[in-house]
Amino acid sequence: MMMGHPEALELFGRQYGVAATRQLRDLGISQAAISRAIDQRVLLRETTSVVRLAGYPFGFEARAMTACLQCGPRSFLAGSTAAAIHGMRYMSKGRIYVAVLNRCQVSPPPLAADLTDDVDARR
Fold first, then answer.
1. Contact yes or no for 16/62 (Cβ under 8 A)
2. Per-residue pLDDT for the chain (123 aa), expressed as one digit of tens each?
3. Is the dihedral of CA 114, 48, 77, 116 positive or negative?
4. Cα gap 64→67, rounded to integer Å
């Protein structure tokens, strides 16, 4: 499935081995092809809408990207997660913190989401 879609491989490479299924469909990959790749363990389902390319480690950066992709385009990394991504030392990498401007399903643990409407969208 992925070998015939170099743009999908590039997407996985840019996003620490994970992608939202909507991103794959936007590249022209059918839901049936995605499901087959999951059944064949080429892709591993990490959340309800995010998959990981088998063979990529599911480290801190991949978990953080998964959280943002799961929560959608109106979400961003927050707290110690954002600090760690920006290189601050001694920040916990155990739990992923995401601020969400709109409601979304956040699963599975250890994802934590703060719902907020206190962010100036003009920034």
1. yes
2. 566 889 999 999 999 999 999 999 999 999 999 999 999 999 999 999 999 999 999 999 999 999 999 988 888 888 888 889 888 888 887 888 888 876 655 554 455 555 555 555 544
3. negative
4. 5
Cα-flanking dihedrals φ and ψ of residue 112, to 5°?
A: -130, 130
For the chain, the DSSP string reads --TT-HHHHHHHHHTTTEEEHHHHHHTT--HHHHHHHHHTTSEEE-SSSEEEETTS---HHHHHHHHHHHH-TTEEE-HHHHHHHTT-TT---SSEEEEESS-----SSSEEEEE---S-TT-
27's tokens: 């590249």
CB proximity list for 73: less than 8 A, separation 6 or greater = none
* Spatial CB neighbours of 80, under 8 Å, sequence gap ≥ 6: 91, 92, 95, 97
Burial class of residue 63 in the structure, from the number of CB atoms within 10 Å of its CB (0-12 exposed, 13-18 middle, 19+ buried): buried
